[in-house]
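From the shared-data thread, chain only:
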Amino acid sequence: MRVVILGCGRLGLRLAAKLTKEGNRVVVIDKNQNSLHKLDRDFSGEALQGDGVNMEIYQSVFSEKADVFFAVTNSDNTNIMAAEIARQKYKVEKTIARIGDPIRAKAFEELGIETVCPTTMCEKKLLKMISPVKPQDREEVD
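Structure, as tokens:
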């Protein structure tokens, strides 16, 4: 599978490492060259310095078909725009954008862009952590 990752922060680094180790062909794009230098020594993919909304970088990256596109920068606007470019112009079937604002994430999901919202995920996890255990959820101890 050919995967393109926009954003080489903590999440992008982890995705790149895992996907490369699984044998996927991975391209990582980030505007900061220092971020790209943090890629694992075992990373066998391609690292490109470029802005997430620069059409020249996309023409280069998508000259070969990509199966998946992740937009995981720290900018909701960049992630949405990049995911739309990948989906609409380059016909990438699976485009996923990290969106920090829950309201925007929901709106873009309704428009057909798959999103991951860390804010909502964390909220659910935290609330679950303080929820009292319901009697029916307790295991009986003899």
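The domain at 2-130 is CATH 3.40.50.720 (Rossmann fold).
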